[in-house]
């Protein structure tokens, strides 16, 4: 009578089979890495058009990552800025908001100047509630500037106020950004 345990034991793979399995695993790893590299180099979501030269991409960048703050006033009354400006289902623009606190996130793959006009154009294209189609007075860090929206550059930690109609009595001159912003 044969030993039952011996009949149920699988045959040991030969050394050739082990090498073949190892080669298959290595090939799968290389193919996976190539796919990830390919996808990371092709991050533009072509279903959303660029706005003022700013594409909608599938990743956030840290190469150039700053924040500015915008307050909007209409006839002396504060108007909120909505959350999710510049954020689409599958991509985000380099200028966007996450929350309704007025902080503008500027996250780009390269350092360059971005303007209030570009942010407002992204807002118009991706959200609702823009306060007015008129031309506001522009204040940067409490100072009235003579630049247009299209040429008012947003720098790190700028407090920008757009005033439609009456100027508010207490014009903001700075914004207290959260620690780390």
Describe this structure in words.
It is elongated and about 85 Å long. With 181 residues, the chain is an alpha+beta fold. The protein has a domain at 56-164: Ferric Hydroxamate Uptake Protein, Chain A, domain 1 (Beta Complex), CATH 2.170.130. The relative contact order is 0.16. It has helices spanning 4-8, 15-41, 116-126; strands at 56-57, 64-74, 77-79, 92-93, 95-96, 103-108, 137-140, 143-145, 159-164.
Strand fraction equals: 15-25%
- What is the name of the CATH class of the domain at 56-164? Mainly Beta
Global structural class: alpha+beta
Task: Let me know the average pLDDT.
Answer: 84
Keywords: Membrane, Transmembrane, Transmembrane helix
Quickly describe the structure.
This protein has 181 residues and is of the alpha+beta class.
Descriptive labels:
two-stranded antiparallel ribbon, seven-stranded mixed beta sheet, 3 helices, Ferric Hydroxamate Uptake Protein, Chain A, domain 1, alpha+beta, single chain, about 180 residues, about 25% helix
What secondary-structure arrangement, pairings included, does this model have?
Layout: H1 4-8, H2 15-41, E1 56-57, E2 64-74, E3 77-79, E4 92-93, E5 95-96, E6 103-108, H3 116-126, E7 137-140, E8 143-145, E9 159-164
């Amino acid at each position: 009578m044969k030993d039952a345990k011996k009949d149920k034991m699988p045959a040991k793979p030969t050394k050739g089979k082990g090498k073949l399995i190892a080669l298959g695993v290595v090939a799968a790893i290389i193919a996976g890495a190539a796919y990830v590299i390919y996808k990371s180099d092709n991050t533009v979501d072509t279903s959303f058009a660029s706005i003022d030269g700013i594409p909608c991409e599938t990743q956030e960048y840290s190469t150039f990552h700053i924040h500015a703050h915008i307050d909007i006033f209409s006839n002396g009354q504060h108007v909120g800025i909505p959350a999710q400006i510049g954020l689409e289902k599958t991509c985000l623009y380099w200028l966007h908001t996450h929350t309704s606190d007025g902080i503008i996130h500027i996250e780009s793959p390269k350092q360059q100047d971005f303007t209030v006009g570009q942010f407002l154009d992204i807002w118009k294209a991706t959200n609702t509630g823009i306060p007015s189609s008129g031309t506001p007075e522009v204040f940067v860090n409490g100072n009235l500037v003579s630049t247009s929206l299209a040429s008012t550059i947003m720098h790190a930690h700028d407090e920008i106020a757009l005033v439609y109609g009456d100027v508010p009595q207490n014009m903001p001159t700075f914004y207290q950004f959260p620690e780390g912003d």
